Amino acid sequence: MSRHIVDIEAEASEASRDMDIPAGSKPTRPGRTTVLSVRLGQDEADALTELAATRSVPVSTLARSLIVEALQTGDQQPETVHDEVVRALRETLRSDFLAAS
Fold it and tell me: How many CA atoms lie within 13 A of 72 on its CB side?
């Protein structure tokens, strides 16, 4: 019976686990190429750690997701109360009613 590729790779990985990383090697994460260092106050770090624990995710994963979410949403604050009212009406009212007015 032939061995499965996963078994072969697992054995190779275990056999080389204590070997030094070759000089010039760089770890990669496809799609995630930039490392960002951020300084937080102790209260902020504690709050982030607590929130990550409640969501059962690593702190860095939570921080990254919060940053990405903020970038995707951007600053979308309506400029006036009028804009906010119009947006709410458009979301609430039927399109055929709006077309008739």
Answer: 6
pTM comes to: 0.47
CB atoms within 10 A of CB 49: 14
How far, in Å, CA of 40 to CA of 6, rounded? 41
Q: State which amino acid sits at residue 86.
A: V
pLDDT digits (tens, 9 = 90+) for 51-96: 889 989 888 888 888 888 877 776 666 566 667 767 777 777 666 6
Q: Which residues contact 40 (CB under 8 A, 6 or more apart)?
A: 48
**Number of domains present in the structure of the chain:** 1
Say which residues have a Cβ less than 8 Å from residue 84's Cβ, sequence separation at least 6: 78
**Does some domain include residue 2?**
no
Asked if residues 85 and 91 have their Cβ atoms less than 8 Å apart, the reply is no
**Domain membership flag for residue 51:** yes
Rounded distance, CA 78 to CA 87, Å? 9
